[in-house]
Amino acid sequence: MPLTRQNKSAQVEWISNVLNDNEVLVVMENKGLTVAEVSDLRVKMREAGGGVKVVKNRLAKIALKDVDGGDQTAELFKGPTFIAYSEDPVTAPKVVVEYAKTNDKVEILGGLMAGTAMNAAGVTSLSKMPSREEVIAQIVGSLTAPAQNIAGAIGAPAANIAGCLKSMAEKEDA
User: Fold this and answer.
1) Can you give the pTM of this predicted structure?
2) Of 33, 87, 107, 155, which sits most exposed with the smallest number of CB within 10 A?
């Protein structure tokens, strides 16, 4: 059943919202995925904090017209394509690259991040970067490390004295 003009404009608006609300968009080619395989990818992406959607190429190209880097990304929409998106710029690429490793029916074509078009290699290299949560954890670890070192240095002499006293007590008992 063909889409009505109202449905088409709603889908263009939805794609525009996805582009505005998310940091990254990954474009993939569907080389014969079954419904179950697409559902599996959707579940994995949803668990990671992103989404996957099959979009009409023409409508995606219309939505990309007003976006920086959209012209280069619009060229990727040929044949059976679908998109993955996430607020964290690393989440969607990580999930898609991992899924593509286990399923040869998915080919990563490229993507768009912060107005910059990427090819498939760019998406793959982006997937190797740490996620936002991992970066925050590293920063927190770096900030708390000096305090832990100070606490360890303060407690070390007391531990040494206790160890010496224990050794002396064991020698006397022997």
Assistant:
1) 0.72
2) 155
Its sign, for the CA torsion 45, 125, 101, 112, is positive
> Which SS3 state, helix, strand or coil, does residue 65 take?
coil
The rounded distance, in Å, linking the Cα atoms of 133 and 64 is 29
Instruction: List the structure tokens of 143.
Output: 């900030």
**Cα dist from 44 to 54, 72, 161, whole Å:** 16, 28, 54
E-strand ranges in 5-44 read 24-30
Same structural domain, 144 and 115: no
Contact between residue 100 and residue 52 where contact means Cβ atoms under 8 Å apart:
no
Distance from C-alpha of 123 to C-alpha of 112, rounded to nearest angstrom? 9
Distances, alpha carbon 6 to alpha carbons 2, 12, 32, 77, in Å? 11, 10, 29, 22
Burial code of 147-171, b = ≥16 C-beta within 10 A, e = fewer? eeeeeeeeeeeeeeeeeeeeeeeee
Note the pLDDT of residue 15: 87
- 120 and 65 in one domain? yes
Number of residues written out for the chain: 174
* The pLDDT of residue 159 is above 80: no
Task: Based on the fold, state whether residues 174 and 115 are members of the same structural domain.
Answer: no
Domain that holds residue 173: 130-174
Please indicate, yes or no, whether residues 124 and 134 belong to a single structural domain of this protein. no
